[in-house]
Every structure is written in structure tokens, then in C-alpha cells.
């Protein structure tokens, strides 16, 4: 787990009813992706991209670039900066709570990006009051907030003694599951298959420990980067690819999986009982 940044990414207030709580937002997640630059293979100089018009093959300077929305194939409506300013949400510095709901009612599919909400010194008491009231009622606040000229739907929820704000997807952004996973003609599951499947789940059940899981690709890439930066020649043998598995009898596959997982689960239970 990373250390939090001391610089807030947004400053404003939480508003609910007539109560105003001065707060600041801090990034709760910083993704650790591996980023590469495109280099010229001859002199290893970073390459630059240029905008050009394919109609005449000439480079187009920034002052001659406009935004266009494609309404049909190769048909565009030009949107000016003035149009964008007219449509932009009213700039506010408030997280406006509109409703309180149960957390269980929100499908995790709607959540996007989390932020820690910290009170400013003058907002410490009302912050704690809201936090503890929400914890006791087991409610989540649904709100809207404007950040970086964009309006976000968000959920404000208690989390281990602090408030966490999670930006959310709007309903029309979520793909209907029935359009990709048809529910018609469901396969029949017999009792024996269900029993063995549940036993397999039980044998693999444990406490969630986030530190257990690693981005193995990023770790391997960074190891190669460090070794190459130190002047070491890196030679790795490619790992064998998993061969495609043939379709097997479902109950036989479940029982084989259970037999493979059972010793681990049995040891864990023995350690727990000891």
C-alpha cells in the first residue's frame, strides 16, 4: 500500500441540507502501469508526433485545429470553444448530497475511481458527525460534484473511520448484461454438480489479503529495466504457453479440482483450529 500524497486534488465542501463541511479530496488509488516512450531505433531519440491533413499531406498547426463530432461516416459537426463553455456545468466547490441509499443497492459495476475525503480544520466536528451518522444508519450519500470542468456522479461512503468519495458511471454508460449474456435456455445443473462446486469454493475460501496479489508482468519488466540499466545482458527463456484444454466431463473436472485444492484447504483449517 502506497503513502498518501500530501497535496489535495480538489478543495471545497460537502453540502447536505443546511450543513456545510469544508473538505479536501486526496487520491486513494495511484495505478502503477509500465509506460514506454517511442524511440528512433538508430539514435534512441524520443519521437514526436505531428498532426497532418491526409487530404494535402501538410502539417496542421494548432491554431487551425477544431473539434468535430462525427454524426455519420465522415460527416462531422464542428463544436467551438464557445459551445463547450455554454454546455459546461456550473463551476461549484461543493459535493451536493442528493439522496442516501443502502450500499448493497449499488452494483460495484457503477463505481469508477475512489478518493479520500479529509476535513479542513474548521470542518472536523461536522465531518465526524456526518461520518458517524452514516455509519450508524449504514447509508451511502449519492451526490454530484464538478471537478476539472466535468460533472461527476459520486457515492460518499464511510470506510474505516473516514469518508471515501467514489466517482460513478451514469446509468446510460453501463452496458445491459442481457444484451451480451443471454438468460434464455439456461443449462440444467444437477445436485451432485452443485454440491461438488460448492465444496470446491469452500476449499479455496480464505480472508482477502490484498498484499498477496502482485502485478507479475510489471515486476518482471522493472527487473529487466534495472538489470539493463546496470549494464547487464538480459537473456530469458520464454515460458511455455498453456495448451488449450479440451472439453472435459464437468463433474470429473470439478472433482479433480477439488482433490487438487483440498490438501491446501485442509492444512489451512488445521492451522486455524490449532
What can you see in these coordinates?
There is one protein chain. The protein has helices at residues 81-87, 124-137, 191-204, 216-229, 250-273; strands at residues 10-16, 19-27, 67-72, 75-79, 94-101, 111-119, 140-147, 150-159, 162-168. Among the domains are: 10-30 and 88-173, Ku70, Chain: A, Domain 2 (Beta Barrel); 191-236 and 248-273, no CATH class. With 274 residues, the chain is an alpha+beta fold. The longest helix has 24 residues, at 250-273. The strands form 2 sheets. It has a 7-stranded mixed β-barrel with strand order 1-2-6-9-8-7-5. Strands 3-4 form a two-stranded antiparallel ribbon. A hairpin with a 2-residue loop joins strand 7 and strand 8.
Which structural class do the helices and strands define? alpha+beta
**First-residue to last-residue Cα separation:** 30 Å
How many β strands by DSSP? 9
For the largest sheet, list the strands in their spatial order: 1-2-6-9-8-7-5
Mean pLDDT value: 86
CATH class of the domain at 10-30 and 88-173: Mainly Beta
CATH 2nd-level architecture of the domain at 10-30 and 88-173: Beta Barrel
Tally of alpha and pi helices = 5
Rg calculated over all Cα atoms: 27 Å
The CATH topology name of the domain at 10-30 and 88-173 reads: Ku70, Chain: A, Domain 2
Model regions low in confidence, pLDDT < 50 over at least 5 residues = none
Note the overall shape. extended
Amount of beta strand: 25-35%
Biggest beta sheet summary: 7 strands, mixed, barrel
Amino acid at each position: 500500500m502506497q503513502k498518501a500524497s500530501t497535496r489535495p486534488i480538489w478543495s471545497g465542501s460537502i453540502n447536505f441540507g443546511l450543513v456545510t463541511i469544508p473538505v479536501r479530496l486526496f487520491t486513494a488509488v495511484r495505478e502503477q502501469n509500465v509506460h514506454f516512450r517511442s524511440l528512433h531505433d538508430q539514435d534512441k531519440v524520443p519521437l514526436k508526433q505531428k498532426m497532418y491533413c491526409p487530404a494535402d499531406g501538410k502539417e496542421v498547426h494548432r491554431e487551425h485545429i477544431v473539434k468535430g463530432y462525427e454524426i455519420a461516416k465522415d460527416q462531422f459537426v464542428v463544436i467551438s470553444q464557445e459551445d463547450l463553455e455554454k454546455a459546461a456545468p456550473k463551476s461549484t466547490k461543493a459535493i451536493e448530497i442528493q439522496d442516501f441509499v443502502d450500499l448493497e443497492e449499488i452494483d460495484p459495476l457503477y463505481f469508477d475511481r475512489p478518493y479520500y475525503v479529509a476535513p479542513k480544520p474548521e470542518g472536523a466536528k461536522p465531518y465526524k458527525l456526518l461520518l458517524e451518522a452514516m455509519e450508524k444508519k449504514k447509508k451511502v450519500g449519492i451526490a454530484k460534484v464538478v471537478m476539472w470542468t466535468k460533472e461527476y456522479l459520486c457515492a460518499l461512503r464511510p470506510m474505516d473511520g473516514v469518508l471515501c468519495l467514489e466517482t460513478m458511471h451514469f446509468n446510460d454508460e453501463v452496458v445491459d448484461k442481457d444484451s451480451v449474456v443471454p438468460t434464455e435456455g439456461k443449462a440444467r445443473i444437477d445436485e451432485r454438480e452443485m454440491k461438488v462446486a460448492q465444496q470446491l469454493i469452500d476449499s479455496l475460501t480464505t480472508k482477502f489479503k490484498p498484499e498477496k496479489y502482485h502485478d507479475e508482468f510489471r515486476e518482471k519488466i522493472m527487473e529487466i529495466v534495472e538489470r539493463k540499466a546496470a549494464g547487464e545482458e538480459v537473456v530469458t527463456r520464454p515460458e511455455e504457453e498453456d495448451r488449450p484444454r479440451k472439453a472435459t466431463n464437468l463433474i470429473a473436472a470439478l472433482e479433480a479440482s477439488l482433490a487438487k485444492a483440498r490438501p491446501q484447504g485442509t492444512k489451512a483449517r488445521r492451522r486455524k483450529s490449532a
